[in-house]
Amino acid sequence: MTATQKEHKDPAMVERERQERRRRPGMGGGGRAIGLLNSGFLLLWGLITTLPLLWAIMSSFKTNGEFRVDPMGLPSGLQWDNFARAWTAANIGQYFVNSVIVVTMSLTLTMLFGAMGAYVLARYEFPGNRLIYYGFLGGLVLPVFLALVPMFFIVRNTGEIPVIGQFLGLNSYLSLALVYTAFSMPFTVFFLTAFFRTLPSSVAEAGIVDGCSHFALFFRIMLPMAKPGIISLALFNFLGHWNQYVLPLVIMQDGDKRVLAQGLGTLAANTGFRADWTALFAGLVIALLPVLIVYILFQKRIQAGLTAGVLK
Amino acid sequence: MKKGTYPFVLAFLLPPVGIYVMYMLSPYVQAIYISMTDWSGLTATQNFIGFDNYVRMWNDDQIWVALRNNMILLVVVPVLTLFLGLFFASMLNVGGRGRKAAITGVRGSSIYKVVYFFPQVLSVAIVGVLFKYVFAPESAGGILNGLLSAIGLDALTRLWLGDPKYLIWVVVLVMTWSFVGFYVVLFSAAMQSIPKDIYEAALLDGASRLTTFRKVTLPLVWDTVQVGWVYMAIQAMDGFAIVHIMLGVHGGVDGAGDVLGVAIYRAAFASSRFGYAAAIGVLMLVLTMTIVILFMRVLRRERVELG
């Protein structure tokens, strides 16, 4: 598109182009067509990525009439009422709160237990160390669908345990958080073990010489030192837990306990192509906002973390 | 070793291992046994029936439809995504030709990388709901048909979700849409680690963009492509949320958009045939493992040794 993007075939051509550029400042020379075509594709994909999302945001501000008659047009006014209807009548508010509760619990448990396990596996020698490590790793390649059926029964049965059963079982926040935690363990342990191994042992040794207990060593020294790795992984797990769909579908069968992604899916299925589209889109925007905010704040880190997840 | 090491190790390992074994590992082990029973989940009776569920699966036409669709997802989505991902990544990282022949991405690369990646952080549920309405009939606000007529391609408008022919291809498009950005960023990371002087040398030799891509970029990011391919194959086996939300629990019109994940969910939680559902799960495990091993072997052999 500009002079910086064209192709250079050979020195003579480069020279010719340079002259040409001098004559017409800001314009390119040969190879411009290809450059233009390529830039065109980049722009086109940019549009393909953003337009559906912009459309969803726009639709969330329309009236149902506008949405139906002129789906691509701009909204005539901002119908904040759509959000109110989505939040209360369509229960999105309740689903949102459920998601926040479950993800807060599951993220805390995942990061705490994951860090504990990874730390011990990375820095302590004991019989069975390798076995446990590979046991965790194996979980990385198992398809979640195979586990679905038995997991349903395990969760249901824990609800029958006396005393603690009332906090577990189906439709329980804690159970869903524990399931998320279990399914996040393989990658969390994998990533954090590698991370704890890279930390210098001199600090840990100094701590031991000073009479630091193992617990204090972990919580006061190692955990703060591992902060960058912990944060990257917490972001990774936050997105994973917040976006989870099939696990809550199995465990949260009670309407009031649904999490956001699941509630939105059910809402879309139930309204079909008839009812309150704009409230549905408002719900979609409500569901989209937390990940959008987290992504904008941490996009470098999220991209690095998620891609490292594949390469490690 | 310091005193009290073993109690400490035990205390630290017990919670993570306990939760992992209870909620994740043990279900996998149980699933294999359940797949050989006629368990409905509602009754206490759980009769061992050997491979009957697997025989039933073999004779179940719907499973074959789901299997075929999974194969389409497995082949088409990775090919499309890899092609687009490599193309965009090379444009964004080494596609630009700055003054003094500096190798950079085209203008606006950093913005493109942020925008392209965004679908990756979206919930599949959001993606499913969104595209259900993109592909909806115009009378229900579907924009794809609206866009097509707006640019004079009325002939291409159809009831995308109403015709069995198109269902799985709609899923392919939606999946590709949400995958590409991730692979752009993944390949970008790999391309940025290629020394710039290799490109400068290629440039001085008068290599075209395409030759440079084929002879320099592709061989040097091949390892990443290979890992990405396997990872994508595992992802593409899924398709659950998109099909479940866009097409419903029966896989759309005539069940034509069905995938194995949805078939498992349906068998277990809609028809209470837990034994059968577990058997489909085992099929999925076997397929996933086969594909991972196959991909690894085939791709390893073609690996290009460079530098």
TrEMBL record, chain A:
**Originating organism:** Phytoactinopolyspora mesophila
Biased amino acid composition, Basic and acidic residues: 1-20
What name appears for this protein in its UniProt entry? ABC transporter permease subunit
Regions crossing the membrane: 33-58, 95-119, 131-153, 173-196, 217-239, 277-298
Q: List, alphabetically, the PANTHER family matched.
A: ABC TRANSPORTER PERMEASE PROTEIN MG189-RELATED, ABC TRANSPORTER PERMEASE PROTEIN MG189-RELATED-RELATED
Keywords attached to this Swiss-Prot or TrEMBL record, sorted alphabetically, are: Cell membrane, Membrane, Transmembrane, Transmembrane helix, Transport
What residues does the ABC transmembrane type-1 domain cover? 96-298
Q: Name one GO biological process term.
A: transmembrane transport
User: Where are the residues of the annotated region Disordered?
Assistant: 1-27
Q: Which family does it belong to?
A: Belongs to the binding-protein-dependent transport system permease family.
Q: What coarse category fits the chief subcellular location reported for this protein?
A: membrane
From TrEMBL, chain B:
Which Gene3D superfamilies does the annotation name? MetI-like
Superkingdom per UniProt: Bacteria
Naming one, the record's GO cellular component terms include: plasma membrane
Q: Name one GO biological process term.
A: transmembrane transport
Q: What is its main location?
A: membrane
Annotated keywords: Cell membrane, Membrane, Transmembrane, Transmembrane helix, Transport
Membrane-protein topology: Multi-pass membrane protein
Xref: InterPro entries: ABC_transporter_permease, MetI-like, MetI-like_sf
* Record bears the keyword Chaperone: no
Q: Where are the transmembrane segments?
A: 71-94, 114-136, 166-190, 274-296
Keyword Transmembrane appears in the UniProt entry:
yes
The record's subcellular location field reads:
Cell membrane
CDD domains in the record? TM_PBP2 (cd06261)
Where is each ABC transmembrane type-1 domain found? Answer: 67-295
- Identify its protein family: Belongs to the binding-protein-dependent transport system permease family.
What protein is this chain from?
Answer: ABC transporter permease subunit
Task: Supply the source organism for this entry.
Answer: Phytoactinopolyspora mesophila
Q: What is the lineage of its organism?
A: Bacteria, Bacillati, Actinomycetota, Actinomycetes, Jiangellales
